[in-house]
Amino acid sequence: MLNFIIRIMTRELPTTFSLYLLPADVPEILTRLKSHGLNDLQSRMFTVAKEYFSLPRDEKLLYPITKQNEGYISLGQEKLDTATQQNQAGPKLLINQKECYNILKRTTKNDVPMVLRENFPLLEELRWRCYSLCMQLLKYLATGFEINENYFTDNHDWSADGGDLLQLLHNPPTDKTAIRAGMHSDYGSFTLVFQRENESGLQVFDHLQNEWYNVEPCEDMCVVNTGDMLEYWTNGFVKSTIHRVMPLINNQEKDRYSIAFFSIANNPTLLTPIKSKFLVKDYQMYQKDEHAKDIFDYENRKSITAGEHLQMRLNRTYK
Ligand SMILES: O=C(O)CCC(=O)C(=O)O
Ligand SMILES: [Fe+2]
Which domain of life is it from (predicted)? Predict the structure, then answer.
């Protein structure tokens, strides 16, 4: 499915960046963005993130995650893969061995701990540049589907209420039975993920082959995940990328850092399927996706709003 998006998106891409598929033999499942222009910003942000995560736990807990999804998430606090966690988690299985700091678009200098406050201009710039990149991608996507090119971006208005999120992540050293981030899909439209060299562990799931693929960090590139909102908007034609983070043999004893930006539609946006000639009228064709079934009321075809979807996913994550 993704290769369709890439095809239609690359048609319109300017020469300043290009989209790559990897691994080359499974072009359906993964998109990377090259020459995104954020190398310097993201590498400076990693330095700040390392400094932040090395603070004593008590200090980090002074800014705990809020209902609005802002602040510090401690190890194991998130429940990403609820099914596995309930069914397979033995007492020794450590899940979601990651800690995060969430920065919303509304987050101001006064809302964050000192280390982040001192570096707030950097944080603001990265947040804005990531958002702008996602908006560009959404325009290409709309163009590709031959709908109004502003259709998606109008529903991602930076000044309106919505959950856009910059997330700093840290996986501490662990043993090989632990899971660094359980299998999940992201909640929004596009997600950008920045990884550091030699800090692999991210894996994406290929529905067709029923297999996981390692997403090795690539210099000068970030990973682009499609999220649930694109799945709704395209009636399941675009699949929300299923992914996880595992400790790999060569790095389980090492720290791993990553940065993610989640673009998320404005709260009141109705996630009704777009009217594109590329999407069949017959809903049946795309309804069979297990993941979408879980998050969509197919019975009544009642459209959900972006805010409702986000709240539902967050409620499950922090239950
Ligand atoms: O750490 C990563 O590479 C990805 C993390 C992730 O999937 C998430 O936070 O949603
Ligand atoms: Fe994710």
Answer: Eukaryota
